[in-house]
Predict the structure.
Amino acid sequence: MKLCVFRHKKFPIVCYFSSTYSLLLYLCYSSQREIENTFFVFSETFPKEIAYNFKNCCYIPKYKESIHFYVPKKWIISKIYKWFVIPKIESQTKIFCQDHTTMLQLLIGRHPYYMVAENPVMETIMKSHYPKGRATGQTIKQHILDFINQKFIGPLYGHSLGFNHLCRGVLFSDKGSARYFHGKDIYLLNIFSAWNQKNENERNMILSLYGICSSDLESISSKKIIIYTQPFVPEMTIDDNKKYMVALIKKYPLEDIVIKVHPRDEIDYEQLFPGITVCKSRIPAQLFDLLGVHFEVAATYNSSAVYNMSYEIRIDWYGEELRHFGSVLYNAPIPSNANMCHL
């Protein structure tokens, strides 16, 4: 963190991201000049090894989470960054961001913004919310707590995912989401068309920001099966998560497998599966497709990475195995072309 460095410099665009997919959408949507004139703020869940590749950025490091003083702690951290690190947000500053976490809501504050989708299946997330973004099944106590937090955090609390008067527009890749945003500017991006329209220098710039090495791509492109992990901890224990991954891996020839680690997954898969190729880079899975690295099989529990691929691929879906873990979040529906698999 470089204190006071950027407070004296103005940026026409400021981005707040916690997802590598959201970042990819923005990079594909924007011109090289716009990217160079953007200041990026990466929240504590964003992979720091990618964040530090950006010249104009700040990264909020991970800190010890606690149920005690949860909101006040985040409020203090956000204020430190807004006062000393992040460029001053003026009325004409354009903000692109995600708005689904407390930290991001605090950073956005009361400034108008454009929401960027956090994954390729935002429509599914919209279906699970009331209008105005409130989750179903809330008690009176929860509503009261929401009211208090909204006064403390700001108007986005309880009204995330663009369901508020501050959200001016949305940037996403799935057509079905458009119907949830009446009256807002809609930016529907075909990520493959946007990538193909960029010149070689622009593509190389994006790849360098993600820290992609050609040698890594060569070893990965020779594999037939890609397995996408999910960060279920703390919904599942690490031991449970490992047990399920071991059972899944045994379903396939080891020499054909590459494991794509989720950006927030902290399990050491190289130690767990010695001899199997592991993609440790926390890049969004869509970059493989954009670079022409294709596979015959994609296996996962419920990763949204298997959606919107540009080529025919067999999808092995193991999500039903997790039904007895009632607290595991199902953030993606079953793909229509998926094979329902069991361990």
User: Anything to note?
Assistant: The chain has two domains: 13-194, 214-340. The radius of gyration is 20 Å.
